[in-house]
Amino acid sequence: MRNICISRGSYSQGKELAEVLARKLGCECLSREDLVEEATKAGIAVGKLETAMLKPGSFNERLLLEKEHYHAFVTARLCERMLGSDLVYHGRTGHLLLPGVSHVLRIRVVESLDGRINSAMAKLRIPREKARRYLESVDDDMRRWVRTFYDVDWETAGHYDLVVNLEQMSTGNASAALCSVAALPDFETTPASRQAMENLLLAAQVRLELAREERTRDSSFRVLAERGVVLVTYQPRDARVAEFVPAVVHRVPGISELRCTMASTSILWIQEEFDAAAESYRQVVQLARRWNAAVELLRFVPGGTEEVGPATAPPGAAATAPRSREYNGGIEDDVEHPAEGEDGGLRRTQDSLAGDGVAGGAHVACCRPDRLLDKLDSRVKYTLVVVGNVFLQSGEAARVRKTRELTSTLSDILKAPVVGADELKKTYMFSPGQAVKQILYLALVAAVFVLVFTHQETVVKLLHSEGTRAKLLAAIGVGVLVPCFAYLYGTVTKFLLKLIRIE
Amino acid sequence: MIPHILSDMFIELNLSTAIQVVVLGFIGGILSGFIGSGGAFFMTPGMMNLGVPGVVAVGSNITHKFGKAMMGSRMHGELGNVDRKLGIFLILTSFVGIRFAVWLNTMLFEGGTGGHGEGGSAAADLYISLIFVCILSLVAISMLRDALRATKEDSGPSQRIAEYLSRLKLFPMIHFPVADVRVSLWVISAVGLATGYLAGTIGVGGFIGVPAMIYVFGVPTAVAAGTELFLAMFMGAFGALNYAFQGFVDLRLTLLLYLGSLVGIYIGAYGTKVVKEIIIRIVTGVIIILCVISRAIAIPMYLRQLGYVEMNPEWDRYFNQASKIMLFAAGISGCAIILWNVYRGYQRRKQVASTLKIARAETVA
Fold first, then answer.
1. Closest approach of B297 to chain A, Cα-based (Å)
2. Full-model pTM
3. Whole-angstrom Cα distance, residue A341 to residue A319?
4. What is the pLDDT of residue A447?
């Protein structure tokens, strides 16, 4: 099965290249415009979404829902077509639509600005300067669209398998080269990549079914699927519609189990081996409950070299490494379900989290550390990322260094606090040291109150003194005391509310 | 005991008054955490109802805002929601607005010889109340109109003004990297001046700053809120120093306000997690309208004190009481709605486990 996604700009010959390529491969060619038309017919307000998407600050809850529906619709249609036959898709963000499906060849087509201006001048019959301004404006809109939808940069080459510059190459020659690339074993469908696509299809179908149903249409849901097990996460504000979810979801065929989690946010927990009986599990669950968060598990099996063999990989890793290449983009097990105990405790931990009401889905990533996040949906914002035991095959010193490097990389990419599992207690739980600090702050707050309220007359006189020097002193006194007091009392309040789980 | 010479400016604080100020802070904090902007629209008139002269109420509240915004801005900064460049441009112009507001308030207050409700204080009180009623009526009406329209149409905040101004291209145009917008320096200056003036006059600059950033500059909502807190921190500091220099800050009131508000903010912020955006806007709009009515009720009293209307001075007490009751009714009912939703949020959390079991059982069946 050959599945190709081409990301193209306006007048960059991307459409022409896609059509020639589809003809050469003898497969269907689908454009973004076709999908938009289908979505509009299905009742999704793509026009409004498009207008709002291009203008900052214009998103309301209704449009955010429309965005969810549109994303699910496009994912479902692409997956249906790609699972059925070969397909060349060309649009804006096809390369980001199917995360974790390794057999999809992601191509970016670029053309020189002069070439694009000439094409635009010829087609639109407009002067050169106007054509240049038009293309710059369209490119800006496109960048904004990708940023708003996926929170990534459109131009980042790392999101593509191949960037084709048509400045020197004809579309015919470029398509011939792409035919050869598409025939490489790296882009062949494997059972794992097919499974990944089926998972995405099932999740998208469930999301669409929830959008079609009157009672659940106006609520936001995040849906994940894994071999028939569907996880629906919803916001606390939508709790009243949660009771309808099972009945609606069951209309979609192929579901073996449904799990629902109410959460306002997500915590990403990355480890190589999970253990539901460990102390770190208890701490993560405690934190998730306090924050109303769902816990998303990511089992990371480091494999940065060509071969991820049994000699260097932990138990189960060999089975989850699908083929000998660097990038495999996510769940990559060619075999059927890994046996209990060979999945690094992932399934058992996931079940425990579901039992605790904080399950947020699970993934396996068997790749280099810098490609770790390819499996994840870039639209999800994490409140916290917890990095537990990783690089278990390395020695102690190397493990510490590699974990630190991984933590630093994740901090840069995810824009969320990243902490080690061993730091959880110190950072987010209560320790005797913290209690002493809070008591000290509380004592200082009390002292300020006692001083001010037992000497009201003096304070008032000081505040309303005559003379520039005295006035200046009063102003400085207020300017220093007030922020200090706010900091001390604010810290104590936050601590006390944490104790009663209001955060 | 407050010296007689200062009793016009600083009220006598007994336990009952102190508790009322803490409650004002608590309700203001809840509203502030829930709405994400201000809380002064409740606290300033509330203190005036307790007999605090308007200018001291504004001075004490802006000082309170300084520390509060400092804490909030730190958190927003960590989330990357603060456009510092935009904040700095607005700060510079807002300082001019604040300075003008402080000068005007001081002049009106010192223009008379009497205390609260007797000449000078009444002039400043009337001026503050009128600005309060006019500005917050506009804010509440637009907020409610937006909320009701959003239920019918699927549109977000209107971008017509932002689009019009960006087409105008009044040079020099400045690019703001975090918000990703280009805005004319002249437009920024006008908004900064207005925000500073209102923050200095009634202590509610955020009600102008945030909508202006969204509607006029086209800044994303989260960045507008974060940048406003960054701005509020500096405006609060500048306003606090100015008012403190003039002797119009009652430190006792500021500390008591903190006692309630910093607890309230966390509870209010928790409320936003469990209430839909449309409900937040409607609740906010209704609370502001009620606060406006409360302040409007007190206006005839100031008019009489200034000799503009003939009225029995005994009635002042009733106007003041009616205004106070209205304000507390607005604040308490708003808080009750928010606290009820917070409670329901907790309850729903408990229901999760059972939802989960039902779902799995049905699937297995």
1. 31
2. 0.61
3. 13
4. 93
Is residue B318 assigned to a domain? yes
CATH no. of A3-187: 3.40.50.300
* pLDDT tens digit sequence for B173-219: 888 877 777 888 888 888 888 888 887 787 666 667 777 777 777 77
Residue B1 in domain: no
Q: How far apart are CA A280 and CA A443, in angstroms?
A: 33
Domain count, chain B: 1
Contact A375, A365 (CB under 8 A): yes
* Domain-located, residue B6: no
Task: Measure the CA–CA gap between A496 and A491, rounded to whole angstroms.
Answer: 9
CB atoms within 10 A of CB B265: 28
The residue among B118, B132, B101, B2 whose CA lies nearest residue B53 is B118
Q: Average pLDDT for residues A421-442, to the nearest whole number?
A: 81
Chain B residues touching residue A384 (CB < 8 angstroms): none
Best residue in A221, A464, A481 for a mutation probing chain B (most B CBs within 10 Å): A464
Amino acid at B322: A
Tell me which residue of B326, B55, B86 sits closest to B216, measured CA to CA.
B86
How many CB atoms within 10 Å of residue A220? 16
What is the CA angle B354-B356-B360, rounded to 5? 120
> CA angle, corner B56, sides to B55 and B61, nearest 5?
100
**Quick check: do A3-187 and A265-429 share a fold?**
yes
Place of tokens 């009131």: B253
The Cα B7–Cα B13 span in angstroms is 11
DSSP A178-195: HHHHHTSGGGS--HHHHH
Where b means 16+ CB within 10 Å and e means fewer, A467-495 reads eeeebeebbebbbebbbebbebbbbbbbb
Instruction: Find the residue in B nearest to A251 (Cα).
Output: B363
Tell which residue, A270, A234, A281, has the closest CA to residue A409.
Answer: A270
Contact B221 A57 (CB under 8 A): yes
Residue given tokens 């191949």 in the structure block: A162
Neighbours of A16 (CB within 10 A): 19
Q: What is the CATH number of domain A265-429?
A: 3.40.50.620
H/E element holding A4?
strand A3-8
Instruction: Burial-class residue B342 by CB neighbours within 10 Å (0-12, 13-18, 19+).
Output: buried
Question: Taking CB atoms and an 8 Å limit, are A57 and B9 in contact across chains?
Answer: no
**What is the mean predicted confidence (pLDDT) over B321-329?**
84
Are the Cβ atoms of A503 and B263 closer than 8 angstroms?
A: no
Residue of A nearest to B71 (CA): A487
Per-domain residue ranges for chain A?
Answer: 3-187, 265-429, 432-499
Residues 6+ apart with CB under 8 A from B341: B271, B274, B275
Tokens matching residue B215: 């509607």
> Which of A126-130, A365-369, A404-408 is predicted most confidently?
A126-130
Q: Residue B358: name the closest of A185, A247, A23, A381 by CA.
A: A247
Host domain of residue B311: 17-364
pLDDT at A53 over 70: no
Please report residues of A whose CB lies closer than 8 A to that of B14. none
Distance of CA A489 to the CA centre of its chain: 36
For residue A75, pLDDT over 90 is answered with yes
Which range, A49-58, A274-283, A354-363, is most confident? A274-283
The reply to whether B272 falls in a domain is yes
With tokens 């960590």, the residue in question is: B78
